[in-house]
Amino acid sequence: SAVISQKPSRDICQRGTSLTIQCQVDSQVTMMFWYRQQPGQSLTLIATANQGSEATYESGFVIDKFPISRPNLTFSTLTVSNMSPEDSSIYLCSAKKGTGGRVEQYFGPGTRLTVT
Amino acid sequence: GNSVTQMEGPVTLSEEAFLTINCTYTATGYPSLFWYVQYPGEGLQLLLKATKADDKGSNKGFEATYRKETTSFHLEKGSVQVSDSAVYFCATITQGGSEKLVFGKGMKLTVNP
Questions:
Q1: pLDDT tens-place string over residues B73-99
Q2: Hey, are the CB atoms on B44 and A43 less than 8 Å from each other?
Q3: pLDDT given at position A10
């Protein structure tokens, strides 16, 4: 299994500022992801965080707005840049572990962001 | 691409009531299907999964059967408890071998004593 922690758990930020969210996994994982969960909506994949290289972004998400780092196999950060109220969401870190038929995906508790 | 559609809530039940949460999928082939649960203040947890047609996933008294005839993966529990209050997400895997999860909109369940 894998236990994922995120910091901060919540924050209230002013528009135009940036927030960096940290994600720490308690063991080495093969893949790490960042999701967004807007109020009353499902989870949307923002990007796959690649260790030692640029993240792979999903359609509708760009690096300038959501820069991501993954310096090693257990840690990643997501920055929400130049925030607007539309960025108010829960941001979840996720990690995939295992191989073949025993792959499991785990999720962090989320970071609840409110932009005023 | 592959997708899931699940019934939306919120739903409120009394303790010991029967629960069904509907989920149907649209997919090329037969991708794995999942139910995730998100308890208040916590991250998503895998509740159960099925990797091929006719498989039944089960955990904590919940069950779901992968039915290709009806393209469904409905979640059921015979007797819910207050501790089952949570948001439930149906999910599948995207096409193309990237193995990324695609989620339904989630359904909030509240169980009253």
A1: 999 999 999 999 999 999 998 766 567
A2: yes
A3: 96
Quickly tell me which residue has 């991501």 as its tokens. Answer: A68
Tokens (6 digits) for B11:
């739903």
Tokens of A99: 């191989």
Taking CA atoms, what residue in B is nearest to A103? B99
**B15-53, pLDDT tens digit by residue?**
999 999 999 999 888 888 999 999 987 888 999 999 889
Rounded CA-CA distance A82/A39 in Å is 20
Which residues share a beta bridge with A106? Answer: A95
Say yes or no for a CB contact (<8 Å) between B44 and A107: yes
List % helix, strand, coil for chain B (3-state, nearest 5).
Answer: 5, 50, 45
Residues on chain A touching B101 (C-beta within 8 angstroms): 43, 45, 105
Query: Searching chain A, which residue's CA lies closest to the CA of residue B42?
Result: A109
Phi, psi angles (nearest 5°) of residue A100: 60, -130
